[in-house]
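Design job #97: recover the sequence.
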């Protein structure tokens, strides 16, 4: 696993960037980057050493790359390849940065066959600015909202967002369907993944952990799992957890809080919400109704 990106030291030493981790997973990290170069007269040098996706949240800023100037504001998504330097012009703003490990970037290229695709296959294009679609904006909002909801939930959102980003700059769009002749080669992958989730549902397991156990990359695994099961990995795990919670409510005297913990939920509130959505009754109401 490669080392995740570190910001250029000259920028951090300036004290004009507030950078903090929002979430850190096995193959990516999410950072909040607030910066204030508004009163500076000089450009500030920066270095990008990993593949990243940047959502502009507020402000209006620009950077110079080679002989081009890129201007960005809210509604823009910046896609950046690894290993290049840039000059950030005076500006004030805030953005969300999704940094991916070198290994995961190469897996993305291989699994989605992007070696000859526009942007990914062109060494002369180092960065690209997209207009965020409503779906991208929604997933970005969900990323900021779900930082404490568990690894697999966040991993699922990240994969969905990456899919939208790649589809927006790739023609034709990525097809998630697996042809019939290939399916038989993925059966053992799905079987291993199911075993892992059923054995570890009470832990905060990640997409990377499941896919590693099944001996495939997270990107490949997220594509094939739903084809076989009709559920995303998160949906599948969620249903296992809810069912376990239901069995505990029926057959144990554990408190609702204890049930939520044993079922693998991050909080009793999250368990109660998920349970009510599935059974249309609260855990407490379900227990009373069952034992009446």
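Job complete. Output follows.
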């Amino acid at each position: 696993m490669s080392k995740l990106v570190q910001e250029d030291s000259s920028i951090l030493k300036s004290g004009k960037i507030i950078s903090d981790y929002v979430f850190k997973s096995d193959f990516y990290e999410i950072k909040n980057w607030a910066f204030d170069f508004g009163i500076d007269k000089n450009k500030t040098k920066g270095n990008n050493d990993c593949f990243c996706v940047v959502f502009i949240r507020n402000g209006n800023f620009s950077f110079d790359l080679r002989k081009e100037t890129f201007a960005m504001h809210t509604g823009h998504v910046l896609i950046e390849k690894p290993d290049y330097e840039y000059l950030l012009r005076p500006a004030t703003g805030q953005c969300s940065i999704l940094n991916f490990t070198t290994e995961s970037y190469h897996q993305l290229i291989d699994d989605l066959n992007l070696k000859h695709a526009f942007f990914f296959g062109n060494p002369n294009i180092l960065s690209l600015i997209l207009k965020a679609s409503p779906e991208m904006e929604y997933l970005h909002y969900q990323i900021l909202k779900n930082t404490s909801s568990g690894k697999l939930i966040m991993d699922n959102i990240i994969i969905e967002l990456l899919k939208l980003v790649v589809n927006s700059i790739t023609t034709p769009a990525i097809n998630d369907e697996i042809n019939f002749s290939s399916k038989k080669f993925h059966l053992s992958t799905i079987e291993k993944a199911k075993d892992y989730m059923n054995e570890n549902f009470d832990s905060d397991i990640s997409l990377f952990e499941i896919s590693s156990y099944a001996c495939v990359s997270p990107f490949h695994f997220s594509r094939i799992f739903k084809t076989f099961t009709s559920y995303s990995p998160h949906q599948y795990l969620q249903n296992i957890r809810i069912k376990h919670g239901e069995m505990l409510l029926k057959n144990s005297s554990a408190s609702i809080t204890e049930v939520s913990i044993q079922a693998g939920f991050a909080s009793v509130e999250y368990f109660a919400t998920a349970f009510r959505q599935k059974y249309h009754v609260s855990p407490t109401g379900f227990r009373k109704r069952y034992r009446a």
